[in-house]
Design goal:
Largest sheet: 3 strands, antiparallel
Helix content: 40-55%
Number of strands: 5
Shape: globular
Length: 264
């Protein structure tokens, strides 16, 4: 809700979102049954008039187009950083990213070359600006750029960051939905949560975050490389994307809630 309030989202806006999601779900069910998802049929099944159905779906299509563009941008920036760390042309034998020149210079790799090798199609200057804003890179003496973080997390609160949040919250909900509704012949998706037994000092937060960056981050980076190495064998233009995510959270105990080790 803090994000909702920050952006001035109204109860009417939230209602429109849920009506649209309901319509999309009904449409998918109809397609699975081999029945056409016409505006009239959707309106009848959803209890809406046809004009409202068409307006909701039209706005949804435009929002999806913008979301795809934001998602593609996130993928590009993430790919640039992973290439910087994993491609031997841009890293040391120990996997440390090289400092890259901002202009062509004999004997030095350039940032432009990195962007080209990563496959990113956005403007090089815009990519550099995004990485600078997210504190992933530093520019020194206006001559070379140094990578200081492999993980891209947008700074500030903007549309791009909201699209990123929506994408990964959707992925998390998809995990729970799959495990809750899966058929007996389908595998369960990996889902593990650990937490402290009860309330602790806020200073402990820094200790946990440091542990994660020291111990978990290398595991995720290794998995990222493994996924990239395996992907060509299983590539399918009509398939789906699979992934693994991790995140840190905090929560307050509700009144009367029993303390205890939380592992799920």
């Amino acid at each position: 809700m803090p994000v909702v309030f920050s952006y001035g989202v109204t109860a009417q806006d939230i209602g429109e979102i849920f009506r649209t999601l309901y319509l999309e779900t009904v449409a998918e069910k109809l397609k699975e049954q081999g029945r056409p998802a016409t505006g009239s049929r959707l309106a009848l099944m959803a209890g809406l008039n046809r004009g409202e159905v068409e307006a909701l779906l039209s706005r949804r299509a435009e929002k999806r187009r913008l979301r795809v563009r934001s998602s593609r941008k996130l993928d590009e920036l993430t790919k640039v950083l992973s290439t910087w760390h994993d491609d031997t042309k841009f890293s040391t034998p120990y996997g440390a990213p090289l400092d890259l020149s901002l202009r062509a210079e004999r004997g030095f790799r350039t940032f432009n070359e990195l962007v080209e090798v990563s496959g990113a199609t956005s403007d090089v200057g815009l990519i550099l600006d995004e990485l600078l804003a997210a504190c992933c890179v530093e520019v020194h003496v206006e001559k070379f750029v140094r990578c200081v973080s492999r993980v891209f997390i947008p700074s500030g609160v903007d549309v791009f960051q909201i699209a990123r949040m929506g994408r990964y919250v959707g992925a998390l909900v998809g995990n729970f939905s799959h495990n809750l509704l899966r058929r007996v012949d389908e595998p369960s998706y990996y889902e593990v949560v650990v937490s402290t037994n009860g309330p602790v000092k806020r200073e402990f937060r820094e200790a946990v975050l440091k542990y994660l960056h020291t111990r978990l981050q290398p595991v995720l980076e290794d998995m990222d490389r493994w996924l990239e190495s395996q992907e060509p064998e299983y590539r399918d233009a009509h398939g789906v994307r699979f992934g693994v995510g991790s995140f840190f959270f905090e929560e307050r105990l509700n009144e009367g809630e029993i303390e205890g080790k939380q592992v799920a």
